[in-house]
Every structure is written in C-alpha cells, then in structure tokens.
C-alpha cells in the first residue's frame, strides 16, 4: 500500500504530496491525518499522510520510517479544510495543516507509552507485556523501532485502555503529574499487615487504618498532598509503598489555568427581544440547517446569554460548539461565564497559555472530553467532529484576520466548517463590519436585532468637544475644560473614570491644529502618509505624492503639525492638573509581564485607583460598576489613519469605549475630544446610530470603489535591493494589468508607508475586483515565478482581502 504524504517544508516547489510505501506493520494504524517520518532527499522529515492508495504512478518509492501518532491529529474534515485554506489564501498546504495544530505538536517532543494495567496486559497481550518487561513506560519511537511487529498489538492495547500515550513537551518540562495513592492489596491483606506491623511504626499504622476505613470505595484515589495535609506522614506512605501495600502512582493532570471553579449558573429568563433572536438559531440547530446569523445588539443587550442558551441546545443533541472572542476580550470575566454554565465541558484556548497548556486543551477536544471551546482566532480549528454551532463574538474585530500564512479570515473558515456540518454560525457585534452588515442587507446572512440593554439602562450621554475651539481659547492641554471639570466632579463623588488614548497612527499624518484639516489623496480619499526621510506626503494606495504644505490649504494657518501624544505624557499632565487622583496606566509598557494586565484591572476594580488610562486594550469587555465617565482624548488619531476603513474603526472604537460607562446603577457619561467633531463617524457614534453611519459610509465606499463593493488583493514584495524590488513590482503590475479583465483595477506599484523592514525594501500593488475567476491562478503563477528562496531572494507575499494595508 502507498501513502500520499505532504512534507513539512513550507516552500512552494514541494507543495504536493509524495508517494511512500507503507511497511506492513503500519498498515493497521496508518490513516489520513497521521504524521509520519520519511526520508526526503538526504534528510528525515516530518509529513502528513493525506491519502492511502494501492498503487502509484512512480516506481522505486521510498518507505515510511516511523509513525508519529496513534490517533490522526487532523480529521478528514480538517484535512480537506487545510487544502481549501491553501487554495484560497495561496499558501503551501503543509503550512495550512500546521496552522490547525497546537504549537506543542511542532516542537521537540517525546511520546511515551505507559502501561496502565499490567495484569490485564499480561493476560491478554502477553507478547507485548514481554516487550515492556520490568518497566511500565517506553518511548514510542524506540518501541516502534525495536519492535515494529508489535504495533498492531500496541494499538489493540491502547483501545482497550491497558496502555496510554502521553506527549511530553520537552521545551516546557514534562506534562504536569501529581502523585496519587491507592491500595495495592485487598482489605483483608491490609488488616493482616496492620497486625504484623511493629508497634513503633505508629505513622504507618495510622496510614493503613485510614485506607482500611475507606477501602470499600473503589474510586478512592487521594492525592499525596491531600493525605499529608490531613496529617498522614509521607515517609510512612512511601514505606508502605515499598512493601507494595500501597501504590503511589503519578498521574497526568490537565493543567487548567482557570481552575478557580466558576460558580454554577442557570439559564436566565430571556427578554422578549432575546427570545426572538434565539428562536431562529435554535430552529437551525434542531433542523441541522446551515445558516449565518448576524446578531446586531447594542452593548449590554444580552448577546452572551443568547450564545449560552444556543449552546445548551447544541449539547442536548450531543453536538459541540466553538465560541470565538477576540484575544483582548478573553478575560477571566468572559471565561467564567462559559465555565459557570457548562463547567468541565469547556476548554479554553488563548495566547496566555503555555505550549503545554494549549496542548492539553487541544487534546481534551480531540479526545472528546469537552464539548465547548472558547478561544481566540485559532480555536476555529478545534478538532471537533460533530459541530452544532460556531459563534463569533465581536465579529468586526480585525484580530480575526490572520496576518501570517495562512492569511485567512476566521469568519470565512467558520462558514466553511459550518457548511460541512450543516450547522448555524452566529456573528455578534454592536458594530458589525460593513461587509457583514451588507451581506445581511442582501439576505445572505439573516439579521437579528437587540435594540435595548437588558436592564433598560439608557446608553450613556455623549458630549463632543471641539479641540480646535480649545486651541483658539488658548487651552493647549490634552484635556478640554469640559473633560477636566467632569473628572474633578467624579473624583469628588468617589466615582471612577476611564480615559482612552489611541496611539496607533502616531505621527504618520499631518494635521492643521486650527481647523483640523488633514491632507488626503485626490484619487483615493485616504490620508496622505508623512515620509520623514523624504519630507514628503505620499498615498500608499496609488503612489500620489506632494510636499508638506507650509500653510493649511483650508484656513491658511501655519499650525500644520504632526499629530499624537503618548500615554506617558498624558499621565504626567494628569499628575500636574489633578495631583490627588490615583492613576493606573495601561499600555504596552505597563502590561508586558504575564498577568500584569489582569492585576492592573483587578486593582482598578477594587477601586484602588480613580482613573484608568489606556490604549486599545481597555476598549473592550471591561465592566466596572463605579465607572461613570469615559473620556476619549483624541478621536481623530484613528480617523486619519491612511486606511479606507479609518472611519469604520473610529465609529467602532467610540461605540466600544462608550459602552464602558454607566453599565450598572450609576448613569454614565462620555466625552469625546476631536479636531473633527462634525465627522459622521464621531457624531453617529455619539448618537448611537449604527444605521446612519452604515448608510453614509457605504455611499463613500461605493464612490471610491472599496469593499464591500469591491474585493481587494494585496501583493507585497521585498528585497535588499531597492531597484530590484521596484523592477519586479513593475513587472508584476504589468502582468496583472494585461491578464485581468477590464472590470478590475490594478493599483501601484507603490512604496508602503513602512518602506523598509530589516534592510529589505518593500513595494506593493493592489487589485480591486468584483468577479475575477482567473485571479487566483494568475497570482499562484506569479508567486511561483517570482518567489526566490534564501534570505537574499525576492519575497512575494499575497494577501486576499487584506485588513492591514500599511
Ligand atoms: P452583551 O454580550 O450583549 O454585551 P451581556 O450578555 O453581557 O450583553 O448582558 C449584559 C448583562 O445583562 C449581563 O450582566 C447579563 O448577565 C445580563 N443579562 C443578560 N440577559 C439577561 C436576562 N434575560 N435577564 C437578566 N439579566 C440578563
Ligand atoms: Zn486649517
Ligand atoms: Zn491615492
């Protein structure tokens, strides 16, 4: 028999399966999805088996050397998904396979075969018991190498539970083990031993007595630690273990970072609105219908409760659920809501886990020990085999797009998987992406709405402050007079304040501080980017450039400045203006250490500070009853990012941040400071009016030809020689222009705003298209033709539907 194997060299020339002969002893366990070691060139490489067949068109095949897994790491569905990912995102197939697995499976690891029941093994599989001899654990690779003939009996023993298999992640230390103590002999025998024990062995007698008392219960497996804490002596236990009266076993324990058991919660009685949203989702679950729902619900409208109750229906049908949340909202608060409802049926996957911990969670999913996974982006690949629902919370978040290969959007993967399982996808957001809302308008998705907060708390009142006016009045501080006054008021009342400062886009654009004018590209309607080295303004979509105007083209003022302040500067100013306020600053600098993020938030929650000052990371998921004032210091820093989504991002951010105020009994207020107070992204967010924003933004997207009216494909090149990369970019642009239909546009080549990274010069071009069936094949050819290997070669990166265009 022959196996098709994808070798794990993520380079294009080998992006196809190779045929290998299967040694007879592996025939039983070699199924698609298992990883194998194979000779490749003059090396040994790891590979993924994707198919088994009985003949090959090639002669003189090499033979598979060893088998790495006893259970396929990729299910047939995930193998197929991997090929689809490779096709649609233009990445090597093996890269897609690897992206679906926990990192621990890529790292250096060792697999151990452990005897669980020696007696049963001796009785039923004696030849295998001989292989183990005196020891009860063997290295998997050694075992197979020395006794390849035993493979099928190993498998049999694994299935019967006589043996178990453990993965040791070397780089992370071994899997966590705890010692448990169990009787090694019958109760009668224990009593005999007790009689014979020397009277001076008081501690041993105490231990034995303990085990005699409880020995009726077969499941009694106390932890060593629990016994010693109960006052029994460890050395006495070990002494009895020496005599085989007790057995000390080291058992593997799943590491559970959220162990503090969440309090069990019951389903809440839904409001009418919630019921109307839940009903169609439950119908789709029951009827096994694939359907995409977009749940547009204001912050605090009870979306999470709807997720929880849909999952309950899924579990009742013995199916499984994937819940995706953005990394930053994967807070202990969020996790405990799922653990509180579904307890040990929940696995959690997020970037704070060690490799070993992630692997443990993944294995629980793979082995069917959990039915729900809550996680960030990559949890979409959870190896469930009977999915009943996929939920994507905050579906508009850009972190759902993976920026490295495979450059997939989680939403697309979710829909693809849900189609296979005929199950619903629920996308939830208070500010849906324009793409999703447009699809709902066209009835591709079904729109479900929650217009009210559950507790009928009004959405907070939002005040917009015109920073240009502050300038004119001679106030050069980052705080407007109104915001400062309100802050002092809250401090007096012992209430809390959240201040939000966006640092992205810092200093990349030039703005008139008197009238708020930002110079934009006449062809693309996006802010021009300042290039320091050239002292010029450039459009990084189409390449237009001009010099920095000395005077504002709108009002003639000479106050054209680079824009932006940092959190540190704001903190210093706070100390100067309100010295009595206790401030917690949260930004990349203060949250670098593991756990510091949670610690700072906890301190704020315990009211050990009055003001929480932070960047993006405080925009989401925070729920503090005492927060009654939220200030957005400079709403414009996002608005003028050189990105056609700048308005959308601004609207989303203001809405999110405002949602932090007045969630409980105390009413909330929001102050937004802006140099563009009349901009619709600011005014519509202040008025909590998504639909008006949507309509306005869509008309601009249509006018300028951006998504969702057009699709984008970004081709980015880099090379150490600027002239070389410019030439290649030019040729690629020409090829695209010649081969694509007239309805598509090819923009560029241009130098992106970050023009050089690690001494490699960058160029990019972009395709805007509506329907272009030839695009993927052409791009694949371009990739194959232009991509060079080695660190000095030309690198070609293609991003279908890019989110980051810089
Ligand atoms: P969202 O996810 O839309 O922001 P949440 O699900 O967090 O909203 O709900 C906001 C608050 O309302 C939470 O404290 C939640 O426990 C509560 N809640 C949700 N649904 C109900 C309900 N039907 N009855 C009472 N309280 C509810
Ligand atoms: Zn001006
Ligand atoms: Zn332009």
From TrEMBL:
PROSITE patterns: HELICASE_ATP_BIND_1, HELICASE_CTER. It comes from the Bacteria. Residues 284-450 form the Helicase ATP-binding domain. Residues 547-701 form the Helicase C-terminal domain. It catalyses: ATP + H2O = ADP + phosphate + H(+); Couples ATP hydrolysis with the unwinding of duplex DNA by translocating in the 3'-5' direction. This is Replication restart protein PriA. The gene is priA. Belongs to the helicase family. PriA subfamily. Zn(2+) 1 binds at residues 512, 515, 552, 555. Component of the replication restart primosome. PANTHER family: PRIMOSOMAL PROTEIN N. The keyword Nucleotide-binding applies. It is an enzyme of class 5 (isomerase). InterPro entries: DEAD/DEAH_box_helicase_dom, Helicase_ATP-bd, Helicase_C-like, P-loop_NTPase, PriA, PriA_3primeBD, PriA_3primeBD_sf, PriA_C. Its EC number is 5.6.2.4. Pfam families: DEAD (PF00270), Helicase_C (PF00271), PriA_3primeBD (PF17764), PriA_C (PF18074), Zn_ribbon_PriA (PF18319). Initiates the restart of stalled replication forks, which reloads the replicative helicase on sites other than the origin of replication. Recognizes and binds to abandoned replication forks and remodels them to uncover a helicase loading site. Promotes assembly of the primosome at these replication forks.
